[in-house]
Design brief:
The structure holds two protein chains of two kinds. Chain A has four helices and no strands. Chain A is mainly α. Chain A has two domains: 84 residues, Orthogonal Bundle (Helicase, Ruva Protein, domain 3); 32 residues. The interface between A and B is medium-sized, with 28 and 29 residues.
Chain lengths: 120, 174
């Protein structure tokens, strides 16, 4: 009896754990999808008809075993990359990805030079 | 004239910022259908409006063009485009597939009874998830598919006379 209870406890524990994991993935994806019929809202924030439908589709895809990347690819194929907040890294938007680092390095050099000149 | 390192960096940063802003301003941020046109239709299975059978991609015959029209009885622009669909029904090499979007069966059937039924196949997408396969975000929308099941045109909003002429032209190019 005691062993059965322990097994049931662990079964329920892992069930809860996997449900929490799915919920986390769901909300992560919702937050990274743009509601294209709304003004500046993500799918997570929006209550529009479109957002509700996308939420159902994402849930279905997760239940079918699709991963995050596959879901983004599916939706980007239908609605363009504009639907994804975090842009994919490719040669077109590489400037966007590298620009903060370039500005940081050049800005640092600028400040360094300025301070050096002031000392002199 | 000696150009200082400081000046070079400053000019480079300003030029860089201008380039980034210029590129960003020219990016089209509107909803675009470019991605879907030219692609083959995904496999799908959609329930018929008036029975429990499924309409599948394989049911799109290879000898005809198909116009998939997403509509709802609660959608006013759908009423506006209805006469265009009724005219398209007369085209011999076109089959019209109506996907009833987030609607009640009774209301949908009343709508078709009152205004006429232009559809060769009436399907039902109760929760709107099937329409996502066609990149739909609202009603009405129409997708023209050629005899190789390739999407050749997409019409967002109610079909108008110009769309009607465009569809006829595409059908005659066949």
């Amino acid at each position: 009896m005691k062993n059965k209870l322990i097994i049931i406890f662990f079964y329920l524990f892992f069930l809860e754990l996997s449900a929490a994991e799915i919920n986390n993935l769901e909300s992560k994806i919702f937050k990274n999808l743009r509601c294209i019929v709304c003004q500046g809202q993500s799918i997570a924030e929006s209550n529009s008809d479109f957002a509700q439908t996308i939420k159902i589709v994402v849930r279905d895809k997760i239940n079918q075993g699709d991963n995050e990347k596959e879901i983004y690819e599916f939706l980007a194929e239908k609605y363009g990359e504009w639907i994804i907040y975090k842009p994919k890294f490719n040669y077109i938007n590489s400037l966007l990805w590298f620009s903060p680092y370039i500005v940081l390095v050049f800005g640092g050099l600028l400040i360094f030079k300025y301070l050096k000149r002031r000392k002199q | 004239m000696k150009i200082s390192f400081l000046k070079i960096i400053s000019i480079s940063l300003v030029a860089f910022a201008i380039i980034v802003f210029f590129l960003a301003l020219n990016v089209d941020k509107r909803y675009s259908t470019e991605k879907i046109v030219g692609k083959s239709v995904d496999n799908f299975e959609i329930l018929f409006l008036n029975n429990d059978e499924m309409f599948k991609k394989q049911d799109l015959t290879n000898d005809k063009y198909h116009l998939i029209n997403i509509w709802a009885s609660w959608c006013l622009p759908c009423k506006k485009e209805h006469p265009i669909l009724m005219n398209l029904k007369k085209e011999n090499n076109l089959k019209i597939v109506g996907i009833n979007f987030k609607d009640k069966k009774l209301n949908a059937n009343n709508f078709l009874r009152e205004l006429g039924n232009p559809y060769d196949f009436s399907l039902s997408d109760k929760d709107g998830t099937k329409s996502i396969l066609f990149g739909v975000y609202g009603v009405p929308e129409s997708i023209l598919i050629d005899n190789n099941h390739k999407i050749i045109s997409k019409f967002i909003g109610p079909l108008n006379f110009k769309d009607y002429e465009d569809i006829l032209q595409l059908l005659n190019e066949k």
